[in-house]
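quick q for whoever's on today - can somebody do inverse folding on this one?? i tried earlier but teh output was garbage lol. tokens:
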């Protein structure tokens, strides 16, 4: 699993740089778990992520974590946990189908429209790979 990631969050696309999860949660690729603070958009909003190598990971919401004392006192956010499925390749067509109905996080960061446009330029059966990700992410 290699950052940066393309993350499906509440039916929107976000680009998450190296260390992004460290600031709001914990990504444990070895255990296949993602713990993240619940934000203002609510819980259970993450669906999948695509890593810098073009590998696709489905995310399954496992529920809220029990509150800690700090969370009860309002010093930190409650956390939710996601199971991370095994990595697999994904085609441009499949990714476009998953993104149907997605909107923009904000007008200034049109990640959803940008990604959709790049994927539509590929043949539907083309596998999203490291070269595509490098081009899309500008690396």
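ok took a stab at it. sequence:
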């Amino acid at each position: 699993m290699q950052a940066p990631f393309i993350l499906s969050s509440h039916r929107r696309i976000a680009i998450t740089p190296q260390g992004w999860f460290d600031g709001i949660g914990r990504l444990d690729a070895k255990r296949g778990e993602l713990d993240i603070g619940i934000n203002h958009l609510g819980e259970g909003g993450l669906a999948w992520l695509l890593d810098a190598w073009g590998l696709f990971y489905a995310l399954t919401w496992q529920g809220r974590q029990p509150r800690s004392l700090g969370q009860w006192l309002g010093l930190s956010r409650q956390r939710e946990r996601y199971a991370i499925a095994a990595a697999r390749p994904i085609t441009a067509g499949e990714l476009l189908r998953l993104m149907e109905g997605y909107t923009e996080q904000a007008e200034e960061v049109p990640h959803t429209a940008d990604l959709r446009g790049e994927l539509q330029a590929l043949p539907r059966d083309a596998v999203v790979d490291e070269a595509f990700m490098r081009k899309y992410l500008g690396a």
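fwiw The beta strands are 5-9, 13-16, 25-28, 33-37, 46-50, 56-64, 79-84. also The first strand starts at residue 5 and ends at 9. so keep that in mind when u check it
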